[in-house]
Amino acid sequence: MRILDPSFTILDNLDRQSLAARVEYCGRVCYKSEASIDAHSAGPFVRRMLQRQHSSVFEMAMLSLDIRLRDEAQLAALFARQPRFLQISLPGPDKTRLLLTGSIRALRDFLQGEQDALRDALGAFLLARHPLFFADVVPAAAQADADIEIRKLPLAAVEELPPALLAEHRFLAVRFVVNRAVSHELVRHRRCSFLQESQRYCRYNSERFGGEVAFIRPLFFPEGSPEFLLWQEAMAHCERIYLKLLASASPQAARSVLPNSCKTEIIVSANLGQWRHMLALRTSQAADPSMREVTIPLARELARRYPTLFTAAEHRSQ
What we know:
Layout: E1 2-4, E2 7-10, H1 19-31, H2 42-52, E3 62-68, H3 72-80, E4 87-89, E5 97-103, H4 104-111, H5 117-129, H6 131-134, E6 149-152, H7 155-159, H8 163-169, E7 171-179, H9 180-186, E8 193-196, E9 214-216, H10 226-245, H11 251-254, E10 263-271, H12 272-282, H13 289-305, H14 307-316
Parallel strand pairs: 1-9
Antiparallel strand pairs: 2-7, 3-5, 3-6, 4-5, 7-10, 8-10
Protein name: FAD-dependent thymidylate synthase
Pfam families: Thy1
GO molecular function: flavin adenine dinucleotide binding; NADPH binding; thymidylate synthase (FAD) activity; thymidylate synthase activity
């Protein structure tokens, strides 16, 4: 058995890679197959996920668009459709200009909805730039409306938005290495997107995992204390039973004996406004100490990067 410390990594480096690379990296965390990533693997991975309808991986790649509509009636029609999971803001008093940020999944869902001029224009724009993701939901003959202007908003421009818009349109993914109890709490934040290491598919007796189960060091018991030794004994016992079950059972069956202390990796993606809300809750004195072990340093790092948004979260963490 391995005992690991909890940690987090802000995946802002992914924001500078292609949409396909982002999807592949996050998706492979579920299967712990990151070693399979190479210069040519992203496209085939995306196509497999589309074919299998594994839509959750497409929540990890975001696009921000600056859109100029023909008139205010088009804006009213857009809101009347109540688009799901798209962040839409008016950056100024002009009600024909809007900022729209959404994941590949949210945009695909929108493009399969009711047909209108905006949907057609958006479909033509996305098909021309990202055919890998949209060729199956946008007709090849899709025509852009000359009266609707769409341009991609680069990450640098998103970072320069005023605080209120920055909170809505800057999405950030964080990779946590935590125990299963902490991950159970993270997934309660329903406005976020998640991809998590899958005990259904990961076979921990394989060479890829060193033939052993990894556990997160318990915050509650000092190492070497009687309580820590009891915990260590319990984890070793669970590991022995799990590995024995794998001789005749599938990983999804054998995992039933694995405890909350098991290490898991989970990617959480949300806009900065949602991160601010989550961290205000999960850094407070009332939060689980194991949760605070990762959220307090995360709040401090985000406060350093975005002081206009996260000063309050950092203050609450003291």
